[in-house]
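Researcher: I've got a protein sequence and the SMILES for pyridoxal-5'-phosphate. Could you write out the 3D structure of the bound complex as structure tokens? I'd like something to compare against our soaking experiments later this week.
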Amino acid sequence: VIVEPIQAEGGVQVPKEEFLLALRRRCDEVGALLLFDEVQTGFGRTGKLFAFEHWGVVPDVLCLAKALGGGMPLGAFVSRPEVMHTLAVNPPLSHVTTFGGHPVCCAAGLAGLRVLLRERLPERAALLGQRLLEALRELPGRGIREVRGKGLLVGIEFENETLAQAFVRNCLKHRLIVGVTLHIPAVVRLAPPLSLTQEELEEGLHRLRRAWQETV
Ligand SMILES: Cc1ncc(COP(=O)(O)O)c(C=O)c1O
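Model: Sure. Here is the predicted complex with pyridoxal-5'-phosphate in place.
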């Protein structure tokens, strides 16, 4: 069973409190492996180092990429020794990839992780994300169906796709690059860098408000 703890391109969908726990329980009952894709949600994006920590549900396999490489191309498949062993022997080396584990990318990833932890970027994402959510929820309801997310992964669901696209264009006019989610085009996804400062967030909010006023 493969899920993202919070769906990103699926429209920034935060699961109900009990969902991942129930999924874990069901996988254990039937003997299925539970895989979490934390390619977008990992490395502090949602306010914890990994999103699964919000629910205390531990997957059998964790898929990582993007921020893992600190800007360099790197992906990883993390699991306990028994699971990794099955990949190593049958067929042998079945998870080998052409660019996997390049030493330069690994060094960049390690350096990035050190900065992330030293500068407490997950905590910063939690704090600034809360401010972002609250400020966006203050926008009067017109044109917007819902604002949701965790940490610095936030989705603004518009009443329709046309409004979302107009909002994206208006943001660009104010030199703010945002985009709609791949599978739910009525949702605009905000995922600013975790190094965002409070002042940059306020400036971004100012531009988002102006873009919204021009849209609805
Ligand atoms: C959650 C998630 N998983 C996996 C991927 C796919 O990564 P790749 O482009 O390396 O196939 C993406 C790409 O954006 C993603 O957002």
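Model: The longest strand covers residues 144-150. The chain is about 40% helix and 15% strand.
Researcher: Great, I'll pass this along to the crystallography team.
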